[in-house]
Every structure is written in structure tokens, then in C-alpha cells.
Specification:
Helices cover 33% and strands 32% of the residues. The protein is of the alpha+beta class. The radius of gyration is 16 Å and the shape is globular.
Amino acid sequence: MKNFPITIGFDDSKFQLKSNVKKTQLIGVVCQGTRLVNVIIDEIAIDGDDATDTLIRLTNRYIKEIQYILTDTITFGGFNIIDMEHIYALTEKPIIAITDSQVDLNSVEAALKKNFPDNYNSKMRKIIKAGDLYETEILTAGGPSKVYYHVKGAPPKEVNELLEKVCIDSKLPEPIRIAHLIGKAL
């Protein structure tokens, strides 16, 4: 792995579920190592099903340059869940979905059944297809931190090495951390 891998990290902007606004932004941040290279933004539907296609479209702008796709979890805009297998199949780039804690799958399943009775199965299938949730510990400026992730297209050892290179001040990789900051400002 290169010392300064080129990654694209995604997070969504702030939104309110009980609002007339039905869209939010999906923010992509391209970094070389931990250095910001570019920012791209597009809209997705809150609780919709367009995050996968939007993420692929944004990624394809930099498909020749990037080596990894990083996301802040597998859900954007509420329960607009990405299909990691589909993204990996179309981009041929490893995709890693980072989360800072274990996921209570039973609670997620109950929320999906209650709020999305018509497309519960489709949303749940994307969660299951994300695969195992791996755990690792990385050293950040604040000390050791546990990180959890789903991955498609790379072995866990490679993901652990990547995280050591792209996490500095927090356990979030730098492109995701920057996307998160931009999302808070929008």
C-alpha cells in the first residue's frame, strides 16, 4: 500500500426527519493520504433508496485516481442504505463503511419494519449484504481507539493498514471527518 493512498470519503449533511424538506446532501471528500484534494456534493432523498447510485456517480468522477471508498456507516439521510456489494461490483474499488460502535441489528430491524413496511425487505437485505462487522484498534492523536467496519473488496489486514494511514485526530478517516464537518455546516 502506498504511504499516501487516495481515498474518497462520504457522509451526509444535517437534516431533520420531521420537516417538509425531503432531501439532504451526500458529501464526498477526496484525500491523498490526509491531504484534502477535492469536495463533491449531490442530493439524496431522506429515507430514500438513491444513496447507492448517487455515491457511485460521485465516485466515478475520480475513479481513475482513488484506491478506496470510505463511508460513515452504510446509512445516509436516515435509512437511505447503500448496497456495498453493488458499489464494489460497479467501481471495482474496495469500499469500507466505518462505524464507531457495535450495531444492534435487532433494533435496526424493528425500526425498519415499523417505518418502512413496504420496502423493509429491500433495506434489510442491504444491511445483511454488508457482511461481517470487523473490529480493530487504531492509534490516533488522542490515543488508541476502537473502530468497527464492514468491507467489500479488501481483506481486514489491508483495511487496518489503511486506517492507520488515514486517521489522525479521530478514529474517523480524514476524508469522512472532513465530509462530516462540511455536512454540519450545510
